[in-house]
Amino acid sequence: MQLRHLRYFVKVVEAGSISRAAATIHVAQPALSQQIAELEERLGIAVLQRHARGVRPTPAGEVLYREAVAILRQIEQLPGIVRSSGGEPEGNVEVGMSSTLAAALGGSFVQACRERLPKVVVRFRVSDSETLKASLTARTLDLALVFEAHLAAGFGRWPLFRQRLFYLDATRQDRAAGTISVERMARLPLVLPGPSNLVRQVLDHEFGALKERPNIVSEGDQFATLISIVRQGLGGTVMPLGRWPDAADARLPPPLLIEPPLFLSASILWSPEVTLSRAAEAVRAVLAERVAEHAEQSDMPGLEVLDAPEP
């Protein structure tokens, strides 16, 4: 088996079609088909399943794709790893960041890396936290800065901060600050994000633990939409206080603290199955430092910086 077999196979899987992959890598389609056939012959098992619109990996192909991506990334990183051993960190580092955190930190983080790690190239990817975790598991990312509803097993983790959740309801007559219990909140009309959202996962977990069935009157996938519905007096919502830009709007009562406290946690994750390169370790340190600085300067209500030893 040659490395070209793995490269071609990865391109075919990512393109979803042999013809599209052939056009992308500038290889004749019959030649590419022959390379895939040779790969399957050497492995003794089919790795692609043909269908009307192209190809998809078989179960064996999914395993091969995951391992092939890891092998090819290690080969790509090898020159930087070798050169880093004799001096400053060097090489490529794949970093993922949730969209919420990327909007606040992406630019300053990349700038800090360029200034402090001039021989390191940061490849930046923005996605939702669950997709980034899947990419770490598939070893297509080195590091990911994510929000977590609960600390999932199977990752190396550097906790950075946690953000408390608040309840907001435009119909509340009392303008004073205060608290609301999870049980009480479950019985009020609620406007919440969908089940895949991390805030919703925190709430569903708490409601389930209390055997409460929440009164959800509407769902939305954008916080701006939820706030708009709340302003109409249709129900209350839950989110980190820093997420609603109009928290000082005179039409809205002060948000309530939820008791017991509910949090989202922000952490840097990596795969424990892969030894991080010196470049990745250096980028991880810069990222942790930049996030801590941002958290301390932001002065967002309910935000708590976590003390964690360097991994």
Defining key terms:
311 residues; alpha/beta; nine-stranded mixed sheet; two-stranded antiparallel sheet; 10 helices
List the helices and strands and how they pair.
Layout: H1 3-15, H2 18-25, H3 29-43, E1 48-51, E2 54-57, H4 59-84, E3 91-98, H5 99-116, E4 120-127, H6 129-137, E5 143-148, E6 156-168, E7 179-181, H7 182-186, E8 189-193, H8 198-209, E9 215-220, H9 223-231, E10 237-240, E11 256-259, E12 263-270, H10 278-298, E13 303-305
Parallel strand pairs: 3-4, 3-5, 7-11, 8-9
Antiparallel strand pairs: 1-2, 5-12, 6-10, 6-11, 6-12, 6-13
Helix pairs in contact: 1-2, 1-3, 1-4, 5-10
In short:
With 311 residues, the chain is of the alpha/beta class. Helices cover 44% and strands 24% of the residues. Strand 8 (189-193), helix 8 and strand 9 form a beta-alpha-beta unit.
Explain this structure.
With 311 residues, this protein is an alpha/beta fold. The protein contains ten helices and 13 strands. It has helices at 3-15, 18-25, 29-43, 59-84, 99-116, 129-137, 182-186, 198-209, 223-231, 278-298; strands at 48-51, 54-57, 91-98, 120-127, 143-148, 156-168, 179-181, 189-193, 215-220, 237-240, 256-259, 263-270, 303-305. Strands 3, 4, 5, 6, 7, 10, 11, 12 and 13 form a nine-stranded mixed sheet that branches. It has a two-stranded antiparallel ribbon with strand order 1-2. Strand 1 and strand 2 form a beta hairpin. The longest helix is centred in the first third of the chain and has 26 residues, at 59-84. The two termini are 37 Å apart. Mean pLDDT is 84; it is low at 244-248.
